């Protein structure tokens, strides 16, 4: 079932975290924070919405890093229900796609809850002051990749944030698979 998160809550603060990466290192927000902004994205291995754009995410993340934007991906899915989203599979997924950014596992799901993440992919674009400026989609892709010349909405927004500190006023929410929450 496709889920679409709410629109951007401009200037909402980011949330600190310390999570294990696929390279078995503890990564904190301060470790990935960019001089000109930071992108925190919630993804997972199995979601068709993520899989349809993962190579574009990797490509655009490299451009963001060149612009002084920190990038991190977090998987928060319940691996008891979705074992293919577990840390060992995350490592293979990151290597297969050439991730140039940390891929972290949120075992307790506390980081996803703090950010209000609802789906994969869910993008949170912050300015240099840690204030939310973008919570929109990557591009016009859905369960299948959009056209190769699809407008790179996330990249454009993050580059605008890097330049001006402000995100675009008009944003189209992301769409994807719901986060697979653990049962209480």
TrEMBL record:
InterPro entries: AhpC/TSA (IPR000866), PRX-like1 (IPR047262), Thioredoxin-like_sf (IPR036249), Thioredoxin_domain (IPR013766)
Protein name: Thioredoxin family protein
Domain of life: Bacteria
Xref: PANTHER family: OS07G0260300 PROTEIN, THIOREDOXIN-DEPENDENT PEROXIREDOXIN
Pfam family, one: AhpC-TSA
Gene3D superfamilies for this protein: Glutaredoxin
Domain Thioredoxin: 1-160
Lineage: Bacteria, Pseudomonadati, Pseudomonadota, Alphaproteobacteria, Rhodobacterales
């Amino acid at each position: 079932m496709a889920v679409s998160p709410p629109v951007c809550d401009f200037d909402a603060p980011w949330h600190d975290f310390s999570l294990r990466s696929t390279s078995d290192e503890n990564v904190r927000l301060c470790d990935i924070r960019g001089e000109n902004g930071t992108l925190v994205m919630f993804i997972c291995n199995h979601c068709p919405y993520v899989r349809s754009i993962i190579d574009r995410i990797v490509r655009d993340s490299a451009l963001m890093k060149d612009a002084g934007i920190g990038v991190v991906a977090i998987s928060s899915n319940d691996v008891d229900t979705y074992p293919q989203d577990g840390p060992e599979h995350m490592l293979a997924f990151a290597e297969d796609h050439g991730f140039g950014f940390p891929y972290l596992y949120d075992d307790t799901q506390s980081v996803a809850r703090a950010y209000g993440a609802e789906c994969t992919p869910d993008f949170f674009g912050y300015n240099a002051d840690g204030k939310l400026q973008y919570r929109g989609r990557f591009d016009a892709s859905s369960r299948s990749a959009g056209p190769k010349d699809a407008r790179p909405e996330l990249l454009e927004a993050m580059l605008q944030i890097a330049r001006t500190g402000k995100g675009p006023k008009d944003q189209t929410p992301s769409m994807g698979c719901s986060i697979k929450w653990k049962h209480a």
